[in-house]
Amino acid sequence: MKIGIDMMGGDFAPLEAVKGIQQYLAGGGAAHLVLTGNEDLVRPLLEKHGIPASAYTLVHAPQVIDMHEHPTRALKEKQQSSIAIGFHLLATGKTDAFLSAGNTGAMLVGSLYALRPLEGVLRPTISTIIPKENGSTGLLLDVGLNSDCKPEQLNQFARMGSVYARTILGIEKPRVALLNIGEEEGKGNLLAQATYPLLKANEHIHFIGNVEGRDVLLDKADVMVCDGFTGNIILKLAESLYEITRQKHIDHEYFERFNFENYGGTPVLGISHPVVIGHGISRGTAFHNMITLAQKMIYTGVMQQMSMG
Amino acid sequence: MKIGIDMMGGDFAPLEAVKGIQQYLAGGGAAHLVLTGNEDLVRPLLEKHGIPASAYTLVHAPQVIDMHEHPTRALKEKQQSSIAIGFHLLATGKTDAFLSAGNTGAMLVGSLYALRPLEGVLRPTISTIIPKENGSTGLLLDVGLNSDCKPEQLNQFARMGSVYARTILGIEKPRVALLNIGEEEGKGNLLAQATYPLLKANEHIHFIGNVEGRDVLLDKADVMVCDGFTGNIILKLAESLYEITRQKHIDHEYFERFNFENYGGTPVLGISHPVVIGHGISRGTAFHNMITLAQKMIYTGVMQQMSMG
């Protein structure tokens, strides 16, 4: 099993990526790590942190895609960047997964175009973990990859989210809900109204109906489906909530669970290989969690289970 | 100045409505109150709480619209309900404002059909107060009246919200933003992309660009505009946050500000007369704040300023 890691992505690269690798290996992680990045910067750090040479292969990538570069253009123009090379290795079977805390847009563009969607998948999607007030976790998707959605897409997100919740989050029979304004069938905007009957008829999911904004943080549903516009706003609101409680020194276990570093990153669902996108501010722990997630995604074969063929 | 009050609306009616009136009068409130409700229930309570007969007129309404009744049907069939009579009094100039903590849908239907939109207003809207982390407050709209919106509607919401923020919230030059996913012009879903240039060209507002989900609770904008689907989900999420922090005994001044009872109710913007809709769980303080808000809306003439004519 080979996991590709972009060593140049994120605000604290490559140091925090190296720390994450250190944590991963210390925890008994056994996947071979294929690292892309500037050799002159990365190798001394790996050695300094005692990463054994047998644990990794370092592939030199002389270019870096900046956090604020235009994704499509950057990927096209910087073929020797750590992200472009990382995707190339994944697409050609040299690695089994790829993760990065770098330019999110470039990671999404790479996922969509360097790889390919699974058979029958209309649009890949990204999700986020939502910490529920009772200690459990839910999955919300889409959170920004698809800002305008069709009902058929939401129906597929429900199925992909359900597979992910079962296989990766370990929820045996995930309760799938449509995020909506109003509880009854027939409520909501045109998209929600048209999506409801599709979800109801979907044999691959356990659909429980609508949930509202007030249910997002409660243990009502395990998988919540919405368009990427709505989902992204909820995701960023939740992230800011964590920041605010920290600034105000509101220390409580519940808000600590809004620390997205705990979850390590966002997988792209519905594509041929596992790709995990980390937050720009990822530290060692986040990298460690991203590697662990990628590993689990590989050995469970979760992506292949999402094929609609 | 005459303020109409539905005495039968809300989970704790009519007792908490009476308490709210008591608080209002104790605070020196001088508007004449026109109360609609079941005389046999309401009059003894008014007397028991020492509300002077000179302060109010009680209009008997033998019917009640339940919290879960179908709004349009209920309003049509229950012409003798406290809400239907309340709207009739308002529409015929017997009162200058109307407020209720009853069936939200019926209050909205009444606002749209018993009253009329202001000249040039495509669609009335409802808003909510968002408590910012620095102690200030922002206005978010629409929060559920218009689940599917057109760019021209969002543009009008921006103007109406701006008038409301200036006139009622006392913000001299409200910063108006488009709630979006991404900071730059051109980002977002199709609705946001088409709305941005309209807001930019709107001479009646001080448009500052996009804000993201992470900015909602920060002091970035005074007025945030979005479709009613997105807004309603944010509103209900914020409400649930207050509930969760209470349940978990996370006591902090910041979360106390998410107690929507403090804000007393939601005004319907863009119609001919002030209408304030309270939460079903409104207690005395909420009713008091609703009456005070209605009074301020009358004497500032805020609704007339929203005319697009």
From TrEMBL, chains A, B:
<keyword id="KW-0594">Phospholipid biosynthesis</keyword>
<dbReference type="GO" id="GO:0008654">
    <property type="term" value="P:phospholipid biosynthetic process"/>
</dbReference>
<comment type="pathway">
    <text>Lipid metabolism; phospholipid metabolism.</text>
</comment>
<dbReference type="InterPro" id="IPR003664">
    <property type="entry name" value="FA_synthesis"/>
</dbReference>
<comment type="function">
    <text>Catalyzes the reversible formation of acyl-phosphate (acyl-PO(4)) from acyl-[acyl-carrier-protein] (acyl-ACP). This enzyme utilizes acyl-ACP as fatty acyl donor, but not acyl-CoA.</text>
</comment>
<keyword id="KW-0444">Lipid biosynthesis</keyword>
<dbReference type="InterPro" id="IPR012281">
    <property type="entry name" value="Phospholipid_synth_PlsX-like"/>
</dbReference>
<protein>
    <recommendedName>
        <fullName>Phosphate acyltransferase</fullName>
        <ecNumber>2.3.1.274</ecNumber>
    </recommendedName>
</protein>
<keyword id="KW-0963">Cytoplasm</keyword>
<keyword id="KW-0443">Lipid metabolism</keyword>
<keyword id="KW-0808">Transferase</keyword>
<dbReference type="GO" id="GO:0006633">
    <property type="term" value="P:fatty acid biosynthetic process"/>
</dbReference>
<keyword id="KW-0012">Acyltransferase</keyword>
<dbReference type="Pfam" id="PF02504">
    <property type="entry name" value="FA_synthesis"/>
</dbReference>
<dbReference type="GO" id="GO:0043811">
    <property type="term" value="F:phosphate:acyl-[acyl carrier protein] acyltransferase activity"/>
</dbReference>
<dbReference type="GO" id="GO:0005737">
    <property type="term" value="C:cytoplasm"/>
</dbReference>
<comment type="similarity">
    <text>Belongs to the PlsX family.</text>
</comment>
<keyword id="KW-1208">Phospholipid metabolism</keyword>
<comment type="subunit">
    <text>Homodimer. Probably interacts with PlsY.</text>
</comment>
